[in-house]
Amino acid sequence: MFAQDPPSITFTKDFQTLVHGVLLPGRTVTLVYDAERLPNERSQDQGQKAWTINAFYKFVEQGGEVHVTDLWSETGVVRTKLTDELGSGTMMICRISIPENADHLSVWFLNTGKSGAQFWDSNLGRNYIFRFVVEDFNVSSVAVVHDAKGPLSWFNIEVAALPEVSDLTVLYRIMNNPAADPEDKRLALTSAGPPDSDGRLKWSGSVPVPEDAVVRFSFAYNAYGNPHADSNSGRGYLTWSGAKQNPEAGVL
After folding, report:
1. Quick check: is 3 in a domain?
2. Residue 176: how many CB atoms within 10 A of its CB?
3. DSSP assigned state of 251
4. Residue-wise burial string across 180-200, b where 16 or more C-beta atoms lie within 10 A, e elsewhere
5. Residue of 47, 216, 51, 189 lying closest to 117 (CA atoms)
6. Tens-place pLDDT, residues 158-195
7. In Å, what is the CA distance from 78 to each residue of 67, 81, 85, 88, 92?
8. Whole-number Å distance between alpha carbons of 170 and 229
9. Structural domain span for residue 169
10. Residues 116 and 27 placed together within one structural domain of the fold
């Protein structure tokens, strides 16, 4: 749905990371960072701001060159917040150009200043690693199929994923029966068979759903020990009986 939007990643003060748009090699991604994640160093020099938050990043995990850039605020430091809502504090940004040969984007942050103290936001030393999800896997088929033997249907899905993808799970919810499904359920996909001609492995799963169900779904998976997700920029994907596969419209 947001394939043409410039990619951005928002780091909220409650330590969520929200990806919008499609992160890909060759694109420029905007990092939007809530300074309240690192609130400890706030030095001043003659009444002026004397602290920084830097973003460190690299594109290859083992032996990759580490780059660093300053985060900056388009509005300046918020001295008095009117609310405690997300984004009401000092939001800082930077822009990173992702090279064509990047394997992924790995990011971590440092808050320091005149005092010389250092405070890190590095996902407990693991860094925040963002895979290029559209390259990690693709949906081969997905459908809601009526069961001729009874008043129900089946939500079937098949995915082709790179070998480094593991623990591939579908999070789904029945949209036309909200009372019965107020929260997402999990469908763990299983891998079977040899790789295809592109070296991808087949993952599949099936679960019974109400007859003529409209299913919203997204994906969660691991790669090299790090969790990743594809939620169509938070909107999820939709499918139903007879739906045509059209990923660009958010319908599969």
Report:
1. no
2. 12
3. B
4. ebeeeeebebeeeeeeeeeeb
5. 51
6. 999 999 899 999 999 999 876 767 789 999 999 988 88
7. 28, 7, 13, 8, 11
8. 10
9. 134-249
10. yes
Domain of 199, CATH number, reads: 2.60.40.2440
pTM for the full predicted model: 0.71
In Å, how far from its chain's centre is CA 201?
A: 22
Are 141 and 118 in the same domain?
no
Q: Does one domain contain both 159 and 55?
A: no
How far is Cα 235 from Cα 216, in angstroms, rounded to an integer? 9
How many whole angstroms separate alpha carbon 124 and alpha carbon 131? Answer: 19
Cα angle, residue 220 at apex, residues 4 and 121 outer, rounded to 5°: 85
* pLDDT tens figures, 89-110: 589 999 999 999 998 999 999 9
196 contacts: CB under 8 Å, gap ≥ 6:
160, 202
What CATH code is carried by the domain that includes residue 31? 2.60.40
Task: Decide which of 85, 111, 130 is a domain's last residue.
Answer: 130
- Tallying the residues shown for the chain, one arrives at 252
For the chain, helix, strand, coil in percent to 5 are 5, 50, 45
How many structural domains comprise the chain? 2
225 plus 147 within the same structural domain: yes
- The torsion angles phi and psi of 133, rounded to 5 degrees, stand at -55, -40
Q: Does any domain span residue 45? A: yes
